[in-house]
Amino acid sequence: MFSLALHADQVTLKNGDRLSGSIVKTDDEAKTLFVKTEFAGDVTIPWDAVTGIVSSQPLHITLSDGRVIAGTVSTTDGKLEVATKDAGTVSATHDAIKAVRNDAQQAEVDRLRHPRLRDYWSGLFDLGLSITEGNSSTTALSIAGKASRIVPKNKLTLYYTQVYAKDSGHRQQ
After folding, report:
1. Which residue, among 43, 29, 23, 11, has the nearest Cα to 97 in the 3D structure?
2. pLDDT confidence of residue 126
3. Cα–Cα distance between 71 and 69 in angstroms, integer?
4. d(CA 91, CA 73)
């Protein structure tokens, strides 16, 4: 638990409060920041209330021009400074930031943008059996299935239906 405090991200708010934890992400429009804390649990903060960030983990920052920069983040003179491995330190204003994500959240976004064929499938399977006895004996079996894979660029849907029926009429003597 002590090591979490040493390696925690820190968010500074307009009112001067500071929150330590692990920055997870902003929502799609960068209106709220999600932070996991040790004692307060998951905390949602309005993005406009955030004045500073210091991260111990690499964060992926998506800018309004579409660029994604990754590295540890600190705040200097009201601008976020991202210490990248390749491009050095990149500055960004608060308004230019469209998304903030940790490594796990960025991996999920990348997976959605470039999914493998086996990703994002959902479906259903339906099985029905009907047996009747009386003057005749009827048996019916129905099988149906549907599977869909929906990603931003396409949709693939598979359907399967099968019906088996048997009627053996009894003759009265």
Report:
1. 29
2. 96
3. 7
4. 10
pLDDT tens-digit map of 115-173: 888 888 999 999 999 999 888 899 999 999 999 998 888 899 999 999 999 988 765 55
φ, ψ of residue 142 to 5 degrees: the values are: -125, 140
Q: Would you say 3 and 41 are in contact if contact means Cβ atoms under 8 Å apart?
A: no
Residue recorded with tokens 């003597």 = 173
Q: What is the pTM of this model?
A: 0.65
Q: How far apart are CA 72 and CA 59, in angstroms?
A: 6
Neighbours of 75 (CB within 10 A): 17
Contact 141, 163 (CB under 8 A): yes
Q: What is the pLDDT of residues 9-35, one digit of tens each?
A: 888 898 988 888 888 888 767 688 899
